[in-house]
Protein: Alpha-1,4 glucan phosphorylase
Organism: Jeotgalibaca dankookensis
Amino acid sequence: MQKMDVSQFKDRYKKKFQERFAFNYENATKQEQFVALGHLVKDLYSSDWKETVDTYQENKQKQVYYFSMEFLPGRMLKSNLLNLGILDVVQEGLAELGLDLDEVASGEMDPALGNGGLGRLASCFMDSLASTGLPGNGNGIRYRYGLFKQKFIDGHQIELPENWLRNGNVWEVRRENKAVTVRFGGQVSLEPDNEGNMHVTYHNTQNILAVPYDTAMVGYQNGTVNNLRLWSAEIPYGEEYLFPTEEERNGVKQITEYLYPDDSNYEGLLLRLKQEYFFSSAGVQSVVRYFKQLNLDWSYLPDKIAIHINDTHPTLAIPELMRILMDEEGLSWEQAWEITKKTISYTNHTILQEAMERWSIDMMNLLLPRITQIIMEINRRHIEKKTPLYGEDLTNRTAIVANGEIKMANLAIIGSHSINGVAKLHTNILINHTLHDFYLMYPNKFNNKTNGVTMRRWLQISNPGLTDLLDETIGTEWKTNANDIILLKAYAEDKEVLARIDAVKLENKKRFAKYVSEEMDIEIDPNAIFDVQIKRLHAYKRQLLNVLHILDRYQYIKDNPGVDIPKRVFIFGAKAAPSYHYAKQIIKLINAIAEMINNDSSLNDLIKVVFVENYGVSLAELIIPAADVSEQISLAGKEASGTSNMKLMANGALTIATMDGATVEIYDYVGEENIYIFGMSNEEVQKLNAANSYNSREIYEKNPAVKRVLNMLIDGSIPGLEDEGQDIFDSLVKYNDEYYLLKDFDSYINAHKQIDKDFRNRETWNRRALLNIASSGPFSADYTIERYADEIWKLGAQREPEDLI
Ligand code: H2P
């Protein structure tokens, strides 16, 4: 890309604006100012984009395709500017034009095409693939609305559609000429031709057009621009198609409308299955089409293509690739199977049974008859082959098809060459418990790839103050080699640097406090401890434990008016799945408590509760740099990795945590004196499970602090609660507290008391913040991606045709 100075930028911007809108930029809305800038930026990278794609193809380079139901890219303007190396020039240029970059950037919609860590991980990986110069592309769904927009009404979560495309999307390019057809329903017949080869014929299928929209994934100042391809469902056109009825049109549109439509009923489930096949099939078809252009024998497919399935949602890529290779390209089952397994790899992101996808065979058969045949045959062969080796019991436990259902994780493991967990502890749990039977069969398929986060978005963009501090102390090498952040350790005793860490944090806290004041009408003191829990709302993540601590603290302050403890602001950001009743009750509870506490002047502002509405990437960018305390309090063994833990640490928050997920690795790097660990370990949880002796009611009866706090849920102390208080109380006392909150209660409270004490000593606290920042380098997604590339996708070591001879 050609470099641009400030004055060139200003000229180009004015011209671009004029071209697009035919009036002056000064009179424009933020959104229009953004659109013009977006188009300008796109012009700047478009030649690199084309060149990157061409080079991959000319060199017949092996490419990876990351299939994911979710991507959570966040706003892309600043990330593109940073990666193009023109963030400063544009900021300055806009300022000279009388515009503020942050204001203009806020004119971009933040697409909610993901739900939580899973989708954000996919986007961090996209950034890291391009930034490390690796040939890697995304494949997913272009949801018209994505995940719902969250509103709180009377403290309840209300879901609204988020029309993020209403003003168009500057970054995407519609590629109609690359559309493919995806078939649903109907019947299939297999008939032999004269030579005895089987031919598959489809009857009465519903054909849907999958149209790709491509978005550039710009690498960090390296000229690499990869592709994120998102598919949109459309009615096929052409003379052979009759004019569709309204019902047909709606049925098609529906496929790419919402992320995670309510699946608590048959229709919703069917729609979700459609979505999964839709983007898996479209992705595989486009990958195969690309491979065919290389003019190589089919056996080279795994040498040129890696398909990664992010969680089980894209698992149908396995039977789909088999289908194409056999039915359309005439390969034998054995050939197709070898190629498929070598091409596909899978990441498991959770051990929660409820999250393990299963589909009814009947539904699958109705929607995808040929795919179902293939899955049944994969299963039949698996059982036939493994039973003599491992016996009936073990083999049957690994079956893909059982009790009228298809188990997607089992299919993903059997049909791929690699399965990885997302943190060391998680991978160990997979190997030793959840997927142990598979581990006995395929020990070499299992490996760990601890998650990572892109430091570009989560440090450079969201925390410019800290970025400057790092640049001025340790130089700029850390921006391409995050391990260099460790050099900051040398400043652990430097009082000036420690004071600057404090000042940067305070600035970030003021920025967030301003948002809270303007948007929520709550005043918070930037000198208070900002205590942050931001993640999907789920019982295992134990936001409720955080709530119990708040109530305990509330009681303590009430009992001891004028007590001298640091002020705390409890900050929550979380969405609950629309049909997850209990999670929504917890949202209501937090909001009710916020209302009660924030309006109680007798508390002297010693506690405040801020539950931000519609938490997403943009809010995370505001909250994370402002955090003092990072809450990672899941029941040990349940959180596969976590990634907010890494972002918060890199921004100098101290972690209060159970030994779970990647927090265990954070503990290893940062050392026990710089983190607050509490609660049961995974082993202790396992033992308690095995003993079957847990009795939460006994804790309730015997522990006065617990009793007092829990009683608040049911005795009317918290205004505005309806059934929520009783239901939540019951979950903890009557139904034996599935996630052991009461068991971990005391140690959690004690850890928080320690935080109160430690926060007082500013210098020591800042030193520990510094050590957290300094230890965060290994969690850069660049390293994670390099490990995927080397060990799973083998992007560097591809086999060329000569190697075969
Ligand atoms: C999940 C796991 C996290 C993990 C993330 C990415 C599904 O994300 O629960 O532990 O870090 O995938 O691997 P989340 O809960 O945030 O939706």
About this structure: The radius of gyration is 27 Å. The pocket of H2P is lined by residues 115-118, 121, 349-350, 422, 451, 535-536, 639-643, 661 (CB under 6 Å).
